[in-house]
Automatic annotation (TrEMBL):
Identification of the protein by name: Glycosyltransferase
Pfam families on file: UDPGT
Molecular-function GO terms, alphabetical: UDP-glycosyltransferase activity
Keyword check for Glycosyltransferase: yes
Species name: Trema orientale (Charcoal tree)
Length: 477
């Protein structure tokens, strides 16, 4: 039965979605002998260097096909990234159909198609071609619970804005979540985004299985609750859930040369540097950027900061900022004053190498799920600074559920002031702080649990084997 089975995967647009998909593909190919075709939706003719380098680094059993770029000329200039994300998939459906059809005509072992939740329309294309649809949620079980819970929540709430919900939401097995901490895409129940999201939530059960980037020891109660509901409701309504994480980037993260910041890290004392990064597209307002700069300086701690031009909108899915000159928007004299203690990198750093470096002792993060798991896999405690998407859900879980992060207080005006930043940074990094020690110790334990989950008999290894077994069975039937 070990004739190579073939699966096709479709990450939604953006390097940060591609990274966990590529890593999952790698594992299925190397550990379970699958042939994987990675189908890449594109928005312009220019394929980013990072995407290309990532795809080129994959093993021979993983090949890739770019879909023809979709056209956004009809969209307003200020169209939101989430609108572009969903439209990229919608407008790629005819070419996806064509690609899947031609793969089928040459390989009768194409057994499954894996998309992320935002590609739910693509699942229907696969189903129509008799290819088993699966969903890979590159997020955690708590975020997946939000998806599953939303249709019910929608029927019960009467407020327009989720942030006005009077009581916290109690998702089974999860820490209570205030309405304001729900995904930003579902804050306004009258928005197009909300309708899109609700639609996704209702159609998740179309999948024959859901793979989630989490592991049992990280979210045992939430995962058990998801499975139990599934058993309680019978096989028809909720697909089996496979917790296979942490699936994090291995190897070099980008083709860009990160050697300068790595050699700077090499000269710093052990666990002394706070790495500051807001993911592939997070940006701060101009005021917030200034406060962060002064806050880092006031903390007296060493830092490695990936800076982006200030902007009130995220730079997600927008062009890179490679020509960036940080001096143009950092406070006057900041770079000179902090030359000995800090390093500033424009727009992108080799994150996985930074986090696994012995000099890195803390991570101020926007709580994107991949960044978070990279922190966990390396045992680096966090300062939770969520910006958009599901990042606030992650922050609540990390701070209130797992106790592996500190969350600075945001003022009424939406800005975290420099004094608060300096205080939180000192607590996390200063070896004398009890609170910091608790968070650091908890993160070390979580790191060990993550390694165990991925070990020979670990829960995630077993879940991936179960999935592989099920898929291979389809190839032989
Ligand atoms: N990343 C990186 N260098 C950077 C910023 C991000 O390598 O300077 C990688 C990071 O390691 C992670 C991904 O980009 O794998 C970001 O994904 P995440 O889910 O954390 O956040 P998003 O970009 O989706 O907001």
């Amino acid at each position: 039965m070990d004739q190579t089975a073939h699966i096709a995967i479709l990450p939604s647009p953006g390097i940060s979605h591609l990274i966990p998909f590529a890593e999952l593909a790698k594992r299925l190919a190397l550990h379970h002998n699958f042939h994987v075709t990675c189908i890449i939706p594109t928005t312009t003719d220019d394929r980013s260097d990072a995407t290309k380098a990532l795809l080129d680094s994959l093993p021979a059993a993983v090949d890739s096909i770019y879909l023809p770029p979709v056209n956004f000329d009809d969209l307003p200039k200020d169209a939101k990234p989430s609108a572009k994300l969903s439209l990229t998939i919608t407008r790629s459906l005819p070419s996806l159909h064509h690609v899947l059809n031609s793969l089928l005509s040459t390989d009768n072992r194409l057994v499954a198609f894996l998309a992320d939740p935002f590609g739910f329309e693509a699942l229907e294309v696969a189903k129509g071609l008799n290819i088993s649809p699966y969903v890979f949620v590159p997020l955690n079980a708590m975020a997946l619970s939000v998806f599953f819970h939303l249709p019910k929540l929608d029927e019960t709430v009467s407020v327009r804005f989720m942030r006005h919900l009077p009581d916290p939401i109690k998702l089974p097995g999860c820490v209570p979540l205030h309405g304001k901490d729900l995904f930003d895409t579902i804050q306004d129940r009258e928005s197009e985004n909300y309708k899109w999201f609700l639609n996704i939530s209702k159609r998740l059960s179309l999948a024959e299985g859901i793979i989630v980037n989490s592991f049992l020891d990280l979210e045992s109660a939430a995962l058990k609750a998801l499975q139990q509901t599934e058993e309680a409701s019978g096989s028809s309504s909720k697909p089996p859930i496979y917790a296979v994480g942490p699936i994090v980037q291995t190897g070099l993260s980008t083709p860009k040369d990160g050697s300068e910041c790595l050699s700077w890290l090499g000269k710093q004392p052990r666990c002394s540097v706070l790495y500051v990064s807001f993911g592939s597209g997070g940006t701060l307002s101009s005021d917030q950027l200034t406060e962060l700069a002064f806050g880092l300086e006031m903390s007296g701690q060493r830092f490695l900061w990936v800076v982006r031009r200030p902007n009130n909108e995220s730079a997600y899915l927008s062009e890179g900022q490679s020509q960036l000159e940080p001096r143009d928007f950092l406070p006057n004299g900041f770079l000179e004053r902090n030359r000995d203690k800090g390093m500033v990198v424009p727009s992108w750093a080799p994150q996985t190498q930074v986090l696994s470096h012995g000099s890195t002792g803390g991570f101020l993060s926007h709580c994107g799920w991949s960044s978070t798991l990279e922190g966990v896999a390396n045992g680096v405690p966090l300062i939770a600074w969520p910006l958009y998407a599901e990042q606030k859900v992650n922050a609540v879980m990390l701070v209130e559920g797992l106790n592996v992060a500190l969350r600075p207080k945001v003022e009424e005006n939406g800005v975290v002031p420099r004094e608060e930043i300096a205080k939180v940074v000192k607590v996390l990094m200063d070896k004398g702080s009890e609170e910091g020690k608790r968070v650091r110790d908890n993160m070390k334990e979580l790191k060990d649990a993550a390694a165990k989950a991925l070990g020979k008999d670990g829960s995630s290894t077993r879940a991936l084997s179960d999935l592989a077994f099920t898929l291979k069975n389809k190839a032989t039937n």
